[in-house]
Specification:
single chain; about 220 residues; mainly alpha; 2 domains
Length: about 220
């Protein structure tokens, strides 16, 4: 168990890489080699690696008795895989079928696939989709940050105090912040930066639709 704790980041990164490779190999085996039954094995491997990531986070928590950075990171990755990751995989799947179909000289995309691809190139649809995703991200972000802050503050009035005075944001020390420990502070701060960038990027499709090129 000590080795598991010592090499937890290496194990997590290895599992994450293997899960991504499994998806890529799935598409190759299914559409390039045309072996559908064999390709199902790689989907199973993908799900198995996700299960191992969740198991890793659980074992670390049971051994240490506390929430650490790696557990939060694994949770975020798993949540992504179960939500936005599904849509991204479908997009990757259509892209690979399009490329492999051209190489093999056959049609692997359905009429529905072409309809979806055409729709995804429509600036109005892209803008609407990004607005919706940004709002979902906003809700998840606010709820998660509220949970984080509630662990490091006594009541809502103290939270409001931190919102009114953001000087703690610049100190770089979790002791000055509403976060309960260094791990959650690091995740919270990094997530804040990612959220701001993602929110601005998502709404840029609406604010500057004519200047964007989408695929």
């Amino acid at each position: 168990m000590d080795l598991l704790i010592q090499y937890k980041w290496g194990i997590f990164i290895t599992l994450e890489v293997l899960s991504i490779v499994s998806l890529i190999v799935f598409c190759g085996v299914r559409y390039f080699l045309d072996k559908r039954k064999l390709s199902n094995l790689f989907i199973f491997l993908f799900l198995f690696f996700l299960f191992l990531e969740a198991l890793l986070a659980l074992l670390i928590f049971q051994w240490t008795g506390e929430v650490s950075t790696i557990q939060i990171v694994i949770t975020i990755f798993l949540l992504y895989a179960c939500t936005f990751g599904i849509a991204d995989f479908k997009k990757l799947d259509r892209w690979m079928r399009e490329k492999i179909g051209k190489i093999r000289g056959i049609r692997l995309l359905t009429d529905d696939d072409y309809r979806i691809m055409t729709r995804n190139r429509d600036p109005k649809y892209v803008a609407k989709k990004n607005r919706i995703s940004s709002i979902i991200h906003l809700i998840v972000f606010v709820v998660a940050q509220y949970i984080f802050w509630s662990m490091g503050t006594t009541d809502i009035h103290e939270m409001i105090g931190y919102l009114k005075d953001l000087s703690w944001f610049e100190t770089g020390h979790y002791e000055d912040s509403p976060y309960p420990n260094e791990a959650i502070y690091a995740v919270g701060m990094i997530w804040t930066v990612i959220f701001v960038v993602d929110f601005i990027w998502s709404w840029s499709y609406t604010i500057l639709p004519a200047k964007r090129k989408d695929d």
